[in-house]
Amino acid sequence: MAVSKSALVIVFLVLGGLAVLFGTVLVFVGPVIIDDQIVKNVEINPKNELSYTMWKDIPVPFFMSVYFFHIVNPDEILKGEKPMVIQRGPYVYREKRWKDNITFHDNNTVSYKEFRQYFFEESMSVGDESDVVTIPNMLVLGASVMMENMPFPIRILLSTTFKTFNEGPFLTKPVGELMWGYDSKLVDFLNKYLPGMLPSSGKFGLFAEFNNSNTGQFTVFTGQDDIRKVHKVDSWNGLKRVDYWRSEQCNMINGTAGQMWPPFMTTESTLPFYSPDACRSMELVYQRPGVSQGIPIFRFVAPKTLFANGTDYPPNEGFCPCRQSGLLNVSTCRHNSPVFISHPHFFAADPVLLDTVNGLSPNEDEHGLFIDIHPETGVPMNVSIRLQLNLLMKRVSGISETGKITEVVMPMIWFEESGYIDGPVLNTFRTNLVVLPMVMEYMQYIFIGLGLATILGAVILYLSDKAKSKKCGQPCTDVDPSSSASEKTPLLQASTS
Fold first, then answer.
1. 122 falls in which pLDDT band (50, 70, 90)?
2. pLDDT in tens, 234-281
3. Does residue 26 contact residue 443 with C-beta atoms inside 8 Å?
4. Where are the transmembrane segments (predicted)?
5. 489 class by beta-carbon count within 10 Å (0-12 exposed, 13-18 middle, 19+ buried)
6. Please, which residues have CB within 8 angstroms of residue 102's CB and are 6 or more apart in sequence?
7. For residues 287 and 289, what is the distance between their CA atoms, to the nearest angstrom?
8. Beta carbons of 76 and 404 less than 8 angstroms apart
9. Using CA atoms, how far apart are residues 118 and 252, in angstroms rounded to an integer?
10. How far apart are the first and last CA of the chain?
11. What integer is the mean pLDDT of 344-355?
12. 44 and 136 fall within a common domain
């Protein structure tokens, strides 16, 4: 049975109207559904397999690349000449991280300790752990600065102690020993008679206390009651604030533990986090948007004020005593040793620092730190944290090992901790938290577009039918010419008869 054009017009109008209505509803309901899905996936909840696994075991490639500043002219330095260094490395270590002692609390927080292990990756390194380099001897030059204001006889005694244990101002040792520890009779003596003076009770090395260790007990919010608080630190080792610094603001424990952040970020958002290794909270700022492996990201970088001194940035006065901008004095949380943290090669620091050492060449691409975040979820897609360890060394009267060293903040090593989401985790993340929300967002426009197109088709059909009716002078019907001829034949026959 034929369907009239009027009926088709009505059907198209109804279908188009329903499609537009459904699409319009999705415009308002879709974002709510998407946000609800994101919230369920990013809160710390063992029922959320994707995000909980990423949070607990960090199943993504993570590496630490270490660069040594090999001293070319140690003898000349003792005569007061400017140090000259050559960068060696990187020596790359695969980093394994996992959380243990996980305990959920009634106030929507969870406590844990994060452990870490390092494994040398020769194929990714430029050199081997057996490479021999020369760096300042922290035990000698660091202790000399620490004892600078002690009575002269004590300084003489310290110098005699160094000679007794055959400790000189510089160390020339394999990278592996400098990293993870070397045998030292002086270290054994100090640990036996002055326990607690050194950070390590075993061998002495720059990273000896890092391997097979944890970063302390963090208690963070799960976000189950308020997603805006997810991953934010409630306490560290039971503390709400630290006591390393000279102001309440500098001692605050702000932000997250530095692995994930709350979702729904904007260009006005920042990335605050607490770093146990730096003994302080730090905050990165938005730089630009971008795309990482097909996923939209926001790039956050360190502001110029991060390591500025109190003169250039008054809120940092609490981190003093300060030297030039670009240096963070961490002596208060490193057994009072004269140690400073900076960006590699003194990037973004006072240019004066570059004039004190030959062989440095800072640039943002190689030495600036950044974190690429998927803004909708707060999950880092690509991370590169780069920091440099420096030692203040100078001539100290009474300690002959210091010679005539000109006072200088001496770069020792710089390291980059980097990680990125890849493999099955990336595919699952992209599907659940990027592709599906994108499909739902596009669906609303597809339904509205199809609905409007259907309504437009109905209008065109109606107008064409109306125009045809006016041309006929009355409602037109489609007549079969052959049937008309057959109908006229009997009439003609009747007339003829």
1. very high
2. 999 999 999 999 999 999 999 999 888 999 999 999 999 999 988 999
3. yes
4. 7-34, 442-463
5. exposed
6. 56, 110, 111, 112
7. 7
8. no
9. 30
10. 39
11. 95
12. no
Q: Which residue has the tokens 């630009």?
A: 288
Q: Does one domain contain both 382 and 447?
A: no
Which residue range(s) make up the domain with 121? Answer: 61-420
Q: Judge if 222 and 194 occupy the same domain.
A: yes
Full-model pTM: 0.83
**Are residues 44 and 120 both part of a single domain?**
no
Pair 292, 240 in one domain: yes
Tokens for 386? 């780069």
Domain boundary among 358, 391, 420: 420
Q: Are residues 66 and 147 in the same domain?
A: yes
Residue 180 and residue 213 in one domain: yes
> Within its chain, how far is the Cα of 151 from the centroid?
47
Mean pLDDT check: name the lowest of 90-94, 334-338, 414-418, 460-464.
Answer: 460-464
Angle at 379 between CA 260 and CA 37, to 5 degrees: 110
Residue type, position 300, single letter: F
**Contacts of 406 by beta carbon, 8 Å cutoff, 6+ apart:** 80, 81, 82, 356, 394, 395
The reply to whether 316 and 235 lie within a common domain is yes
Asked, for residue 241, whether it belongs to a domain, the answer is yes
Residue at 136 is within a domain: yes
- Tens of pLDDT, residue by residue over 286-327, are 999 999 888 889 999 999 999 999 999 999 999 998 899 999
Residue 464 placed within a domain: yes
Residue 491 lies in a domain: no
Residue 55 neighbours by CB under 8 Å, 6+ apart: 44, 99, 259, 260
